[in-house]
Amino acid sequence: WTVDEQTIASVDVVKIFWRDMRSFHNELSPSRNSRFGSEKGPGFGWNNQLVLKAGIAWTPIRWVTLRAGYLHGNTVLPSSVAMLNGINMQGIENTATLGVTFRFSSTQEVSIAYMHGFRHTVSGPSAPTQWTNLVSSQDSVGLSYGRTF
Q1: Cα 3 to Cα 28: distance, rounded to the nearest angstrom
Q2: E strand or H helix at 11
Q3: I need a surface site. Which of 25, 33, 108, 125 has the fewest CB within 10 A?
Q4: Could you give the CA distance from residue 92 to residue 77 in angstroms, rounded to a whole number?
Q5: Are 95 and 116 within 8 A, CB to CB?
């Protein structure tokens, strides 16, 4: 949505159907002898996911654009598969972003971005008498140069 001449806002809602992808949805089971992701084969045990995103871009002067965004997506990890999924970052549910673009001419720009995935914990059994706490958080910084031809 164009809020005014300097401001654009956006909202996005996405439903990701992990259940349609067997390698992600099927649960890991020691009794399964099929290939990973086959119809009866093991998988990561993920649930479907609803993701809500909102963002705003503001251009206070022609050569600078400031951006901010927020994402919430319910975790795909049920507690029953916390230990198996310790190698991925899908436990993060809330993420905030900030960015700025500097235009040096009509054909050249530099952008800087920062992303923070807020700490989230998924807990579940890892063995009959043990418990796993999968704690996820993430920070990322990006720098890019763009040139229009």
Answers
A1: 48
A2: strand 7-16
A3: 33
A4: 10
A5: yes
The residues that bridge with 112 in the sheet, in sequence order, are 100, 143
The pTM of the full predicted model, rounded to 2 decimals, is 0.75
Contact criterion met (CB below 8 Å) for 73 and 47: no
What is the sign of the dihedral through the CA atoms of 40, 33, 130 and 92? negative
User: If residue 2 lies in a helix (H) or strand (E), which one and from where to where?
Assistant: strand 2-4
Q: Which two tokens stand for residue 131?
A: 């418990």
H helices, E strands: number in the chain: 1, 7
SS3 category, 81: helix
CA distance 93 to 72: 5
Q: Tokens 């235009």 identify what position?
A: 103
Tokens 């990890």 sit on residue:
77
Residue type, 129: T
